[in-house]
Amino acid sequence: MKIIIINGSPRTNGATGQILLKIKENLEEIDSDVEIDYVDLAKMNLKFCKGCASCYNTGNCYINDDGLEELSQQLNDCDGVIFGSPNYATNVSGEFKVLIDRGHFVFEQLLRNKACFSVVTYENYGGKIAKKVINELIRFSGGAVSCEYVLKLNHNDTVLNDKRNAQIKKLCLKFHARAKQKNPLSFFEKIFSMLVFHMGIKRHVLKNKSRYKGVLNRWTKYGLVKEGV
User: Fold this and answer.
1) CA-CA distance, 163 to 84, in Å (whole number)?
2) 94 exposed, middle or buried (CB, 10 Å; 0-12, 13-18, 19+)?
3) Nearest to 222 by CA among 89, 68, 114, 94
4) Where are the alpha helices (DSSP H) in 59-144?
5) What is the pLDDT along the chain (229 residues), one digit of tens a residue?
6) What's this model's pTM, rounded to 2 decimal places?
7) What is the distance between the alpha carbons of residues 225 and 228, in angstroms, rounded to a whole number?
8) What is the DSSP secondary structure assignment for residue 184, as one 8-state letter?
């Protein structure tokens, strides 16, 4: 089993990072054979999306920076993904937003049939809003929100204690079980994913085939459409 953990906090050892590392530790205890890649977006020096939409045609972002295309391929090949971000101004961090903008998620259905786990830390307000941003990214990209953990803290509070460690361990057991399933989506998520893809994304792409050659190539490769569509 391959799992990717993505820390979207600019403070790599902050509250979000501490929780994500605890999740990693728990998953390794649950399954000694699990393969986990841990990614700090703050260490990747990623450039902003330019909005050119060339990736829809070519299948790759034209910006050749610090490993984002490789990360996108890793996300495609893994069994489960854990996303973490602090809440900044009632949204995810800037680092996480760059990943959303440039990561080939929605049109390419990058998270299709993958178990996902959203983690958000916040201080005053907006944690649920940031969680909604991550969960919508997951669901619009074809994935399952298998677990979520939102933690309110004061700045520089102690993050982990016995109660929180127990909560995280329980969620890790649930996530591990879901990631092992061939299709971890709930009934609601299956219906939602079908409607989003067939009634929205696919219809739009097929009306604009010349602009979405890269997307169609990916869909063909992974069996979402028949070759020559």
Assistant:
1) 20
2) middle
3) 114
4) 68-77, 94-102, 127-140
5) 999 999 999 999 999 999 999 999 999 999 999 999 999 999 998 999 999 999 999 999 999 887 899 999 999 999 999 999 999 999 999 999 999 999 999 999 999 999 999 999 999 999 999 999 999 999 999 999 999 999 999 988 899 999 999 999 999 999 999 999 989 999 999 999 999 999 999 999 999 999 999 999 999 998 899 887 7
6) 0.95
7) 9
8) -
Tokens describing residue 8:
């979207």
**Check: CATH 3.40.50.150 for 2-221?**
no
> What are the structure tokens assigned to 209, written together?
């085939």
Which has the closest alpha carbon to 93: 3, 175, 14, 156? 14
d(CA 5, CA 46): 17
Please identify which residue in the block is written with the tokens 């990209």: 141
